Amino acid sequence: MTVSHDLSIISLIGQASVLVQLVMALLAGLSLLSWYWIFRKSFQIRSARSKTNGFERDFWSGGDLNSLFQSAAAARHETGGMERIFESGYREFTKLRSKSHDHAAVIDGARRAMRATYQREVDDLEAHLAFLASVGSVSPYIGLFGTVWGIMNAFRGLSNVSSATLANVAPGIAEALVATAIGLFAAIPAVVAYNRFAHDIDRISIRFESFMEEFSNILQRQLR
User: Fold this and answer.
1) Number of helices and strands (H, E) in the chain?
2) Residue 79 counted as domain residue
């Protein structure tokens, strides 16, 4: 008599041991969370890049700095990172210029204000990247744990069988390997997204730093 087994993914998950099912549920939850942050970060970085491009066009078009500052201050919650860096630096510059005749101290104060805002902007862009990195590095091992446990159960079940055949052991091993597959499904997108986002954020941060240096030179020329 031939024993048939349902080897569909849903059936294999349903037939797995409780511990392996918990591992699969954990991996599925991690995968859903990682996809949530992948989409959120993708929109956030795209918006940051777009706002940076727009502000650079306005800034280097030769407009008045006071006008740019007023527009940035009026729409602070809608501005991009570079615009907020400009706003904080110019606000500190105008405040110190009216109180001090030490040009070096004025420029240094403006740079410190821009550096503080720069750090906040980069920290905001990098938020939750560590979660994606953790999912990418840990998920395969969590899946492997479920696989090892499932295979152990499959071979323990063979102790009650007089003659072990491939038909006896295949379903148990297939159930266990599903955990590894889910672990890889969770890990691969997280790793790809993390590397891409880290590269994009690094490019944006370089643009922020270049702007701070160029803007500091402009402020220095205004003090002469």
Assistant:
1) 7, 0
2) yes
